[in-house]
Amino acid sequence: MLLKALTEAFGPSGFEDEVRHLLREEVIPLADRVSTDALGSLIVEKNPDAEGSRVLFAAHMDEVGLMVVGIEDNGLLRFRPLGGVDPRILVAKPVRIGAERRYGVIGAKAIHLQQPEERTKPFEMQQLLIDIGANTREEAERLVEIGDPVVFATEYEEFGDRRAKAKSFDDRVGCAVLVELLKQPTTLPLTVAFTVQEETGLRGAGPVAYRTKPDLAMVVEGTVCFDVGEAKSHEQSTAQGAGPALSVVDGKTIANTKFREFIKSVADEEAIPWQYRRTVGGANDAGVIHLSEMGILTAAVSIPTRYIHAPAQVIHLDDYHNTIRLLSAVIERIEKGGHPIS
Amino acid sequence: MKDLIKSLAGVSAPAGAEQEVIRAIRARVEGVADEVYTDTLGNLYAIKKPAAGASSSVKTVLVAAHADEPGVTVVDIDDEGFLRIAPLGHLAAADLVGRRVRFVRSKILGVIYAEGDAKRNAVDFSQLFVDIAVSDQEEARKLVQIGDAAAFAYEMQEVTPRVLLGHALDNRVACAVAINLLASANVPFQLVVVFSVQQQVGSRGIQVAGYRINPDLAMVLDATPTGDTPKAKRLNLTMGSGVAIKALDAGMAVAPALVQHLIEVAEKAQIPYQIDVSPEAHTDAANLQIARSGIPTCGLSVPTRYLDTPSQMMHMDDVDAMGKLLQAWMASERLFDV
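Structure tokens for the assembled complex are given below, as produced in the milestone run.
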């Protein structure tokens, strides 16, 4: 099962190899040309020499994680974040470390031992250590190395009303959408890119845009969703099950209005639900793609992801399927001569 | 000049929705430039070809002035018809309470206010709304779409005949100077003037313009903060003492030879100037300087009081000095040889 395999694969920023290998196997039978660039992004082309609008779809392979930066005398590991990780979600989480996928647990002082005032304050990252079951520094050094990357040890699972949880829907759900899009026949010169290092500052997508020089680009993301508790509509960003979310403005992009209107019109004609992404925080690969070379017309479409950047992220499978339906209809529309600027 | 500034400074053109001011500028440069076009992001390019008889290895000078200003964009609409907004550019939420804004697409007017329980000095954007005097969401949706942008709606005014006050003097004044340059330029090189977009959100427009034009030399026209008001941050610039020649800002340092050349030109032509070292100011120069394989880039700015408010204050003497120094610089024999 693609979503399970992709989300359970190990791929923090800068260490996307396992995800890339998995995707490469999936897309080779579907593509005319498959290549990897110097930073590690996977570039998949269909009909590279065909006439028509050159369309780029991009989803990032990397997930937020940690990196081992020190080993204590007692064999516990110090770490730093790779990407935006909230230290408050780390305590007591199981993790996997390095090429051997060693098991570890992020520990902290038990509640029994905390002074009353300690209980009122969240742990900071420097108070937390990863326990890999080693007794001494020497023992730990035989198991892990400084620089080893770390991910949450969470399995994919479906539950409740068409929900699924996994450690890395941001953005393996986007990767899965793009694999499904590649399965559909098209006559367009279509490029699908699986980018690296999005979570550490949109580093992989710029070189991809420069190399592929598309006329149009669409970024597919797992995005913030906080439709729980007492959040008002404009504080939720997105709502689960309400369809793919279209970007308006984020930290790195003011979305092109005509491109968004074009996608909206396709969704409305196909009776596919959609929503606006209603907050401004965060950014995605569109931020660098739209500024590549002389500027590229770019849109971002996202799958609402509850508890994003945490060990158990939750999506609604209807949103996943509706995103595939929407983007597939957008490709068909462009194939028939439709264009955001007409 | 004041009339030109006034006609441009009254237009609402928040970052990402500059179409109206771009249209106004386009109407003024179409008659004087040899070629005019826009790009994917909305940057406006006006090109003046070199005078007849110029050599085939002709050089290109890029003059840039950003056309946008800070503003807000609609991210949601309440059931009661109040619009929820996000900032476009560096605006503090608390400074927006009670401000009037005009929407670019529908031209309607609205007032920004904060939820009743918001603390006056600790307001954040999720507590702000725009009131457009409708009674529910349905009525609001007829006037405003999600993604519509608005900017301050105040006319430019004169405090004295030589001192201007307005919400978008940064950077319509520089746009006016650039329009005048196009009208009068008769130069032996190719002159490209770009009226750039999305400067307020991180100089995004100039990034693609620099790549496209790849000039031999570039000049960025902008506004810069002064240090001449009570307990102002320590800056040497004062309003009315001359055009500011950029040496350093938050994103770049100008090559010392380019600064010295501008000083020499100013001294020779007896144009009042000041050296601009503004460690917190952002202009298009930073991104332009690192486009392609690197572009020699300098900057001239109008010293401006209250830059981060709708009441920006500028002295016409400084504006005139900017226009004169720009012309004298372009006429300098050593332009490509500093």
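The two ends of chain A are 40 Å apart (CA to CA). Chain A has two domains: 2-63+167-335, 65-152. Further analysis is deferred to the final report.
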